[in-house]
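Ops channel
N.P.: pipeline sanity check, posting one input/output pair.
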């Protein structure tokens, strides 16, 4: 009986520690995103307090990560900062619900959309905007704008892009097939295992060469268009 009691206590303690750790992570994520959004929107804690009707003391605690808003206040903050509640607490990467429309139309994941957003609005790449010189921000801004232009060029070359993606897909499919076959042969002590490995490596080298060639074609077309 004592053993069961001790086991139950251990489980409760572990669950509590996990819950507490998750809460700390959520507070940290909320604090970081809340402060960044205040900066991006041009709010001070005082001006946001006046705008939202939330006390300045509460806003200070939220920003420091000492506390996390109740559901009702979270919705007010999300509305005022024009983001989703889920973004504020780290349950999604995208800032607002418009990204759901992008997902429905393109099939891109939230993470992928978030990365594309950063290329266009790259000041968000800086963890602490106040400590980075404005000229450095501008240089980075120009750099990532160039990245976005290149990505646009790649996406617009439909034929070569699809060819590249097909080659990548074939490589991944064949790689997974070979890995699975190798694992099965290991388990069964199959004497043909060395031949499977050699043959598999040969196939993957050939498929990798196709990827490299199709990528060169895609890159070549981008370079040619820029010359015109």
């Amino acid at each position: 009986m004592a053993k069961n009691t001790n086991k139950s206590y251990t489980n409760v303690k572990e669950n509590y520690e996990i819950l507490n750790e998750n809460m700390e992570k959520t507070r940290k994520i909320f604090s970081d995103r809340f402060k960044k959004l205040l900066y991006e929107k041009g709010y001070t804690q005082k001006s946001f307090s006046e705008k939202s009707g939330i006390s300045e003391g509460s806003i200070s605690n939220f920003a420091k990560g000492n506390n996390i808003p109740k559901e009702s206040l979270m919705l007010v903050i999300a509305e005022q900062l024009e983001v989703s509640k889920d973004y504020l607490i780290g349950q999604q990467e995208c800032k607002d619900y418009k990204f759901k429309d992008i997902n429905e139309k393109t099939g891109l994941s939230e993470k992928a959309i978030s990365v594309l957003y950063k290329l266009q609005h790259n000041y968000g790449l800086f963890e602490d905007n106040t400590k980075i010189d404005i000229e450095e921000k501008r240089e980075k801004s120009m750099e990532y704008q160039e990245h976005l232009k290149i990505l646009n060029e790649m996406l617009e070359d439909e034929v070569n892009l699809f060819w590249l993606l097909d080659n990548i897909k074939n490589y991944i499919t064949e790689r997974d097939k070979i890995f699975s076959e190798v694992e099965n042969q290991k388990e069964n002590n199959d004497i043909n295992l060395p031949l499977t490995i050699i043959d598999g490596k040969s196939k993957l080298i050939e498929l990798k060469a196709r990827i490299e060639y199709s990528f060169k074609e895609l890159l070549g077309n981008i370079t040619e268009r820029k010359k015109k």
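N.P.: looks fine end to end. The chain has two domains: 1-91, 157-227.
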